[in-house]
Each structure stands twice: as structure tokens, then as C-alpha cells.
Specification:
mainly alpha, transmembrane, DUF2530, membrane, transmembrane helix
Length: 106
């Protein structure tokens, strides 16, 4: 599944920055200074995540994922068959063997 990590980190960091500005304007009670530091930590974590995700994408370019054996895109069956649970799986090469009828001992 493709996600836009950069936008996620930017939105999260912006929300922490807005919360910090609101707290600096509202001036929390002296007994609650950890609120401001929580926002500062959120901004720092968001900036680290932004840096890390950009670095990761630069080192690991994402191309189309394919199955090494068949060359088919991952998540799609090679021949259009699906497994019994409805997920893409390997195509059957032969019909399953019929189960012989049970022998009754009389």
C-alpha cells in the first residue's frame, strides 16, 4: 500500500505547532508546564520523522513490486486464479485428487 509519508509528518508537525502557539498565547497554569514541552516533543518527533522518511525514500526507491518467480505484479495472481480463501495465490497445475469413498467394515 502506498502512503504519502511526507504529508503525514507535515500535517502532524503542523498540528503540534498550532497547539504550541495556542498554549503560548493562553499561558497554561504554572503547575502544568509539561503541555508546552509535549508540543515541543511532538514537533521534534515530526521533524525527525520527516527527515527519516525522506532519507529512507532516497535510499530505497520504490518501484513496481513483482513476484520474483513469475514477474507478475504482487497481489495479483499469475494466471487469474485465486486460492480457496479468495486471495491471490499460485495457480493450480492439476485438479485436486478425489477422496476415495470410506470403506465401511460390516
Amino acid at each position: 500500500m502506498k502512503t504519502n509519508d511526507t504529508a503525514t509528518f507535515l500535517v502532524g508537525t503542523a498540528l503540534w505547532a498550532i497547539a504550541l502557539v495556542v498554549l503560548l498565547i493562553a499561558r497554561p497554569a504554572v503547575a502544568e508546564p509539561w503541555w508546552v514541552w509535549t508540543c515541543v516533543a511532538g514537533i521534534g518527533g515530526g521533524l525527525f520523522g520527516l527527515w527519516y522518511s525522506r532519507r529512507y525514500k532516497a535510499r530505497n526507491p520504490i518501484g513496481p513490486a513483482t513476484d520474483e518467480r513469475t514477474g507478475a505484479p504482487t497481489g495479483e495472481p499469475a494466471t487469474g486464479h485465486t486460492s480457496a480463501n479468495g486471495t491471490a495465490g499460485e495457480a493450480r497445475t492439476a485438479e485436486p485428487h478425489a477422496v476415495p469413498p470410506a470403506e465401511h467394515n460390516r
